[in-house]
Amino acid sequence: xxxxxxxxxxxxxxxxxxxxxxxxxxxxxxxxxxxxxxxxxxxxxxxxxxxxxxxxxxxxxxxxxxxxxxxxxxxxxxxxxxxxxxxxxxxxxxxxxxxxxxxxxxxxxxxxxxxxxxxxxxxxxxxxxxxxxxxxxxxxxxxxxxxxxxxxxxxxxxxxxxxxxxxxxxxxxxxxxxxxxxxxxxxxxxxxxxxxxxxxxxxxxxxxxxxxxxxxxxxxxxxxxxxxxxxxxxxxxxxxxxxxxxxxxxxxxxxxxxxxxxxxxxxxxxxxxxxxxxxxxxxxxxxxxxxxxxxxxxxxxxxxxxxxx
Length: 309
What we know:
By secondary structure, the chain is α/β, with parallel strands linked by helices. Helix content is 52%, strand content 11%. It has helices spanning 27-36, 49-58, 67-73, 86-95, 118-122, 141-145, 160-169, 182-209, 215-233, 241-244, 247-260, 265-281, 287-307; strands at 17-21, 40-45, 76-79, 104-107, 126-132, 150-154, 173-176. A 7-stranded mixed sheet has the order 2-1-3-4-5-6-7. α11 packs parallel to α13 (287-307) and α12 runs antiparallel to α13. The protein is elongated, with a radius of gyration of 24 Å. 32% of the residues are buried.
């Protein structure tokens, strides 16, 4: 076991004062992580009771103040608001003179790069886009999960080292994303993470309907192995009736879903078609079996459209 002494963060001089505009699930966790690296959170803004509770839990003794006051107090300001609200917030802060020259402005949106901060840049701010590729709960566990988390980083060339240094201080791994690629990058993460939650929730519901008493215990090992195999092997990890071309099994699935979970039919068919396409392209699905399979999926689609009101 290592005997190297790790200094208490309180013993290290704070290098930057940190503010949070938008105390949702992400902002307080990032600020708490920066605090562990020796920076000093000094102010946060939040409207809802949930936001205030999160800030109080993750950033105790940090006052809740209006956004303009956060800007006034902090050297580094985390703009952690919903994507659609970010452009208007930046424009408003710049127009009201809240932005100070030399102030670091960091947003955590996956969709946007640094360009969305241009109004603040013109006011003298230093713009950084640091998006943690992580799902957040709004609890202290988020700070722990940032260790080893990849961040999508976009910033002007002259600020690249500063952006990457902040990510590393939070325990993350910087991954440079070009400005024009930010929407595609974010779409990829949403496709994998957000849709995964929907798929797992649907699977849990169907297993309960089928009489499984502990569907989470049944799915846990299966999904863990599937995820590990997919990350290691990509399309070569495809298994199941679609990849094998078992048209009869797929037809039985669609029939049962129509009866017990009609809301899941469209998603099942869409994913089955995408799986079939990938299995075909990688030689896993034999062309002679694909015809019957694709016929079943086409019939299922027609039935879905016919059932629609």
